[in-house]
Amino acid sequence: MDKILITGGTGYIGSHTAVELINAGYEVEILDNLANSKASVIDRIFEITGVRPVFHQVDLLDSSAVLKVFKEGSFSSVIHFAGLKAVAESVEKPLLYYENNVGGTLNLLKAMYETGVSRIVFSSSATVYGDIPIGGHGFTEDMPTGRGITNPYGRTKYMIEEILKDICISDPTFSATILRYFNPIGAHPSGLIGEDPNGIPNNLMPLVMRVARKEMPELSVFGNDYETPDGTCIRDYIHIVDLAKGHLAALSHAEPGVAIYNLGTGRGTSVLEMVAAFEKASGESLPYRTMPRRAGDLPIVFADVSKAFSELGFKATLSVDDAMRDTLKFLRNQ
Ligand code: UD1
Description:
The chain is α/β, with parallel strands linked by helices and about 325 residues long.
């Protein structure tokens, strides 16, 4: 059976992907520096799947440790999640982000090259589309990328995509699948793994959960004067288990060259609709206050998901309500 190395495999998306891969019969090893996750996630993966993946606590910036993992591993593919992802922090500490995300990826690619591993699935983001206005249509994978990205975090995703394209040009046997995520939310239905960021979160769902846990008095809703039906921004929220399954679909379609897929639902939900969905799932009201717009926010972001469906057979099946239910289960387990 194919052995897959998951970098960032104790993180939010990585851990759910590890579970889906193990359940599908893949052998999985995890590499993570635990910068934004906990080693106990390995125990949770074992509880869910009955399999304990080999865990390497290694930083991608430590090139000799990374190479050692590859020399001992005989991996058929790598799924690369490891990276820093706090947008505001990336504006304050650009060097940290470029070194960690781009430098770490270069070390990973060099170790793959040295040990003959020629297949990578990369965790990218819809942020690479920058500020293209989409009107009533979703982003499609052939739209231009890189322009109007507002922060170093987003630019690291764009740069890594470009590096992977160059590698595929230089080496016709190399296969890179780039997955552009929209907004992952939710948790595993067991409630054993979910989104548990260290420090102060900046994405909507972790903040909703902070308010639900009464660790914050209210949610700030950034802007209610956008040109959307209720005035708040619209995003494409995809359940984390659906997103994880998107990686399984991507793995089973390994052809040389670059392939790029959006992973989203193709549907938009506003911030106020998210608040209402939380209230419905929890039976509790969620205090919020309308605040000025957040710099860099686009009014409407959602995916055109037709390419992932036609080429990978992938379609998200879970709803925002499912995600709220599963997040609450994870929250109550904490
Ligand atoms: C953000 C980043 C994006 C990154 C993604 C994943 C910005 C401008 N964009 O996307 O680059 O790829 O996270 O990490 O930072 N909201 C509130 N109140 C809050 C938090 C969020 O109203 O306290 C709203 C936002 O205005 C937005 C929606 O909720 O409309 C989702 O926000 P968020 O979870 O931060 O995701 P994105 O903005 O889509």
